[in-house]
Task: inverse folding
């Protein structure tokens, strides 16, 4: 991570991913004796990140009932 040059990210998913990586590295460097709190926070953030990534792939078929029907 330190070898690569930092770039500005404008996508919501990519900025959330960057924040998740920074939070993970912060927890690695400054961990507590009991990691349950950090684990819960990271798991929640990972799930929200996955939800953001998958939000673009699900779309509703707007005109499902208006398809061509030739009565056969």
Result:
């Amino acid at each position: 991570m330190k070898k690569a040059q930092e770039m500005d990210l404008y996508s919501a998913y990519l900025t959330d991913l960057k924040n998740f990586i920074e939070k993970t590295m912060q927890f690695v460097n400054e961990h507590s004796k009991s990691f349950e709190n950090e684990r819960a926070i990271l798991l929640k953030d990972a799930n929200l990140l996955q939800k953001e990534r998958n939000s673009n792939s699900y779309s509703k078929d707007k005109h499902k009932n208006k398809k061509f029907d030739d009565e056969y």
The radius of gyration is 20 Å. The first helix runs from residue 12 to 29.
